[in-house]
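Long-time lurker, first post. I've been practising inverse folding by hand and with some scripts of my own, and I keep getting stuck on stretches where the structure tokens seem ambiguous. Below is the full token string for one chain I'm working on. Before anyone asks, I'm not after the true native sequence, just a reasonable design that respects the backbone. If someone could post their per-position residues I'd love to compare against what I wrote down in my notebook.
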């Protein structure tokens, strides 16, 4: 699979972390939240359509009210760096290898880690502060709602024919996020940390970091954001809906799951092999 855009490269590179879809440009927690329905643009930006918890809005649009919304209590944790699966990380000796430390990383940091890719692409995600998980209970009610309303959603928002329809069921957010992704090159980025030991794994300290001034590609949103990582499963479920543009035609809708926590639907013309 050839991935041309960095947002696709980043999402694919972070598939080893089961937290949903990895967003190259993280979205505001005010827009991307559990029980919202929308789609991702070609560049990976979130486009909200409707909040399943807004019964008045749903009714005004001619959509079936959603009656099974149960929100789970928020949960917080601290993360260390998250990296793509095909990457190495090496602790730099602050004394013996001081000449390797790039400008932009203060001399008083406690640790410097060099991240490098073994294959053609790579990705690094850094978070500071508590990482908050927000989610809703159950998945089947959302699948059934999507099945019942797919044709109406396609009629209301024709762009979903190409982009699919997403229902968000879980998000992860942090007050500060930085990420880097690259393709078609071997690259090393160095990060300085204010703690002496920074484990690379599922649980780790949340700490301040510093990146080199010459290390390009860092995306550093300035507001609280969410939307981290992807794991994708091709679902076996499919169903048909009427094509709103051609009443005599049908579209086959494939249901996919991301990170076992999000639902998306894509419509296909049975007479056309290309995905819509």
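-- Answer (accepted) --
I ran through it position by position. Result:
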């Amino acid at each position: 699979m050839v991935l041309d855009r960095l947002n696709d490269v980043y999402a694919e590179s972070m598939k080893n972390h089961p937290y949903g879809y990895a967003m190259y440009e993280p979205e505001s927690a005010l827009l991307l939240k559990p029980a919202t329905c929308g789609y991702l643009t070609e560049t990976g930006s979130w486009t909200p359509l409707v909040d399943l918890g807004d019964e008045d809005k749903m009714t005004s649009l001619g959509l079936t009210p959603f009656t099974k919304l149960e929100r789970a209590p928020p949960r917080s944790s601290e993360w260390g760096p998250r990296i793509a699966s095909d990457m190495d990380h090496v602790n730099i000796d602050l004394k013996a290898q001081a000449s390797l430390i790039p400008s932009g990383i203060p001399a008083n940091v406690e640790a410097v880690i060099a991240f490098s890719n073994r294959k053609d692409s790579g990705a690094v995600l850094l978070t500071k502060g508590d990482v908050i998980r927000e989610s809703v209970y159950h998945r089947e009610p959302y699948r059934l709602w999507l099945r019942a309303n797919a044709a109406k959603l396609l009629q209301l928002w024709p762009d979903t024919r190409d982009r699919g329809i997403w229902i968000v069921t879980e998000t992860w957010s942090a007050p500060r996020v930085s990420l880097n992704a690259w393709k078609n090159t071997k690259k090393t980025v160095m990060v300085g940390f204010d703690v002496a030991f920074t484990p690379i794994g599922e649980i780790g300290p949340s700490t301040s970091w510093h990146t080199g001034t010459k290390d390009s590609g860092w995306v550093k949103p300035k507001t609280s954001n969410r939307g981290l990582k992807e794991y994708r499963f091709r679902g076996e479920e499919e169903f048909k809906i009427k094509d709103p543009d051609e009443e005599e035609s049908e579209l086959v809708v494939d249901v996919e799951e991301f990170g076992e926590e999000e639902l998306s639907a894509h419509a296909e013309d049975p007479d056309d092999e290309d995905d819509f």
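A couple of notes from the structure itself: The helical segments are 6-13, 55-60, 140-156, 160-163. The first strand starts at residue 27 and ends at 28. Happy to go over any region you disagree with.
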